[in-house]
Structure formats: structure tokens, C-alpha cells
Amino acid sequence: MQLISNKQERIRFLKFSFVGVTGTIVDFGIMNLANLVFHLPLVWAQAISFFAGVINNFLWNRYWTYPESRSQNVKRQLAKFFLINIVGILVRTPLISWLNILILRLLERVDITLSVEIFILSQNLALTISIAVVLFWNFFANRLWTYRDIPIGKDNQQQNLTKTTNTDHHEID
Q: Model pTM?
């Protein structure tokens, strides 16, 4: 599959992943703030933090990972990006709850002294694993739907060079 084997696409995946890290920082920060400071239940706290992360990621991906996409209608593009992320949260929400219970039970069995409460550690580990699972869905679904107008393996500089070369060639003929 060209999407995986192409160097430019691998660079886009790395950029998408880095953007995901920034979204993860937003996600973790807001989830912990909402849960630990404002005492919202974990499922609600992670849902709020998820959407804050989605907005962060959309903006960074639109302007950095896929700068060629800025010619597209921002509302339509955000709607596609958002719908893909809705599927992501539909996977993530039950997954984080299930993983949290599983990890909490595991940590309760381990006789180890931690500087943090085990429920905080289990929630954050569950979120980390859930994010990793959803990352792959988000990248491939967005690449194939939200950013499908960008040719696979071509970046903005390559497209401009091709247009210039084609224009120059036609002028010579």
C-alpha cells in the first residue's frame, strides 16, 4: 500500500503523531483537572478532554501536517475530522473504562509503594492505551477521507514544482 510505503506519507504520519502528542497533553491535562479538581466522573472528564484535544489536533493538522488542505472549506473539513473522532471516542470511552478497571485490579495486587494514588495511575495508563489504539484509526480515516484531496506521497513543494514545470514546459512548446 502506497500510503504506508511512501516516504512523504510516513513523514505525515510522524507529524500527525506529534500533533497527537500535543493533543494528548491537552487531553491528559483537562481530564485530570476535570476529574481530580472538579470531581467529574472519569467518563465525563475524558469526554470533555477528548473534544479539547480534537480541536487542538484539527488546527495543528490543518496548518502543519496537511498545509495543502487549507484551500478546502474549513467547516466541511472540521465536520469530517470531528466525525472520525466521534468514532474514535465511541471506541475509546468503553475501552478506557474497561482498561481502568483491569489496570486498577492489577495494581492493587502488586505490593509496591507509589508516589501517586493507584487510581490516578490506572486512569492515566488506561487513557494512554486508549489513545494509542485510536491513533491508528484517526490517522488512516482522516488521510483517506478528510485529506483525500491531497495526492498520496506529495507535499506542497512537490505540487508547486510540478505545476511550475508543467507550465514552463507548455510555454516552451
A: 0.70
